[in-house]
Amino acid sequence: MQYGRLSILQPLSVLIDLFCLNLAFVGAYFLRYHQIEGCFSSPNLVIFWVFNITWALTLLALRPSIEPRMTFNFYKLTYNFLILLILHACLIAVFCVSIQAYYFSRLHLLFTYIILFTCGISIRALGVLFLKQLRTSGFNLRKYIIVGYGELSPSIVKFYNKHPEMGYQFFGYFDEKYGSDENDIKGDFQVLRKFIVENEIDYIYCCLSYIDNKKLQEIIDHSELHRSQVKLLVDFTGFMKRGVSIEYHDHLPIINLSEKPFSDFRTAIVKRSFDIIFSLIALILGSPLLIILASITKLTSKGPALYSQERIGLFGKPFKIYKFRSMYLDSEKNGPALSNGRSDSRITPWGQIMRKTRLDELPQFWNVLIGDMSVVGPRPERKHFIDQIVQIAPEFINLQQTKPGITSIGQIKYGYASGINEMVERMNYDLKYNPSFRQDMALIFQTVLVMALGKGK
Fold first, then answer.
1. Rounded to whole angstroms, what are the CA distances from 151 to 132, 154, 155, 169, 189?
2. Using CA atoms, how far apart are residues 158 and 205, in angstroms rounded to an integer?
3. Tens of pLDDT along 103-113?
4. What integer pLDDT is reported at residue 115 of this predicted model?
5. Average model confidence (pLDDT) for the chain?
6. Higher pLDDT, 301 or 433
7. Rounded to the nearest 5 degrees, what angle is found at the Cα of 390, between the Cα atoms of 408 and 318?
8. Higher per-residue pLDDT: 8 or 381
9. Are strands 229-233 and 252-256 parallel, antiparallel or unpaired?
10. Strands 185-187 and 203-207, how do they pair?
């Protein structure tokens, strides 16, 4: 069962990281001095043990390798590894300064972290690919059942069928309707307990819409004895898909569906301060790149390097967004139209490159600086398209409670949309955004990867 199995993956990942750490230390010493004999002699032996002990303590504190399957992906593992690496480097720096150990080679330490970063990222990429292939092939699976049968129940099965790399195997529905015309139901509640034990079920999804509280409590009590995990499936159709929080009135949990993100003053100040600092750094340090991009845009097609367009921002307030021009002039002379990607003849060849690398978005840091946008937030849209989206998905209005951003979950996971239905699909990603400094940093890192790999859609 889930809690009874001792997973070898976590201790194995710790040992591999420790091996990479020591390999990086020795390899960096060789690059610095072209020999390894002095690597384990004083004073290098001291920093060697400090490296290992600090790494072990940092691992215990952060536990970066412990990730549930739902969030087990390359981006998450890489983000955790970077946090671990940065914290370790800071602790080593504090150690060296505190004992005034200026005799340690800073170049050796720099080489160590470069090698460790390269090895760590490579191993995580290979590990994720290996596990996905392993689970897709039918190994390392987790068994689950669904209790309570109705329109909501198949949604879980569809999700895991769509993502076989997560390694979840469906073992059937259970409901009091057993014996009726519903052929998908494997049994009723009377055979459920025996089935859980005999088949060593890991997860039990209980659809609250089709099961009473008494039966639910019985399932929870039974699952605790046999180390299965109960998950509750709640139907929020027609309600907000984001901004949900839970507050307690004594022992009663109350689900709050109208919480506004960043509603407290302190968090809003942190968010805005980060936006100002980040945008200033991007505009100042990136000014040579901005000049180069503007020049290429100007030289490769007729028209200005920059263009502005009205978008809808926080609480429905319109503002002018600035981007590098990626289309030919008069591309919308027949009215607003979405791009069809590579097949769109309105996009210039240079514009295609900028869109894939997201370079056309860089002038929006000016929008961030003046307060119209944030670095991270839902993608701002034009009113022409918002009116059409709301007719299909009224919950889109909820996105206007958060300041729009240069990058978002939708932009990373989905990219540019070529139709209203695709805009709705992208919106579903952005509705999952729950503003926090940790998530913002993770999304910024993922955006940099998209830009570096040129995988923008």
1. 30, 7, 8, 20, 19
2. 14
3. 778 888 899 99
4. 93
5. 82
6. 301
7. 65
8. 381
9. unpaired
10. unpaired
Lowest-confidence segment of 63-67, 323-327, 364-368 by average pLDDT:
63-67
CA distance 434 to 443: 11
Residue with tokens 């671990």: 84
Domain boundaries, the chain: 9-136, 142-235, 265-453
Confidence bin at 306 (pLDDT 50/70/90): very high
Name the CATH superfamily for 142-235. NAD(P)-binding Rossmann-like Domain (3.40.50.720)
Distances (CA, A) of 230 to 180, 206, 207, 415: 26, 7, 11, 35
For residues 186 and 361, the model is more confident at 361
Instruction: Return d(Cα 26, Cα 223) in angstroms, integer.
Output: 49
**Vertex 44: Cα angle to 39 and 50 (nearest 5):** 120
Alpha-carbon distance of 345 to 330, in angstroms, equals 12
Residues 6+ apart with CB under 8 A from 59: 14, 17, 65, 84
Residue type, 233: L
Q: In this structure, is the dihedral angle defined by the CA atoms of residues 217, 194, 171 and 179, taken in order, positive or negative?
A: negative
| pLDDT tens for each residue of 16-44 | 888 999 999 999 999 988 888 778 887 78
β-pair partners for 173: 146, 185
Whether the CA torsion 360, 363, 369, 371 is positive or negative: it is negative
Q: Residue 233: which residues within 8 A CB-CB, separation 6 or more?
A: 146, 148, 152, 153, 155, 156, 205, 206, 207, 208
Residues 373, 378, 381, 386, CA torsion sign:
negative
CA–CA distance, 372 with 365 (Å, rounded to integer): 10
Q: Which residue in this structure is represented by tokens 């939708």? A: 410
Residues 328 and 301 sit within 8 Å (Cβ to Cβ): yes
The 3-state secondary structure of 53-101 reads HHHHHHHHHHCCCCCCHHHCCHHHHHHHHHHHHHHHHHHHHHHHHHCCC
| Buried-exposed string 7-25: b where 16+ CB fall within 10 A, e elsewhere | eeeeeebbebbeebbbebb
Confirm if 399 and 431 have CB atoms less than 8 A apart: yes
DSSP state at residue 168: E
Q: Is the pLDDT of residue 261 over 70?
A: no
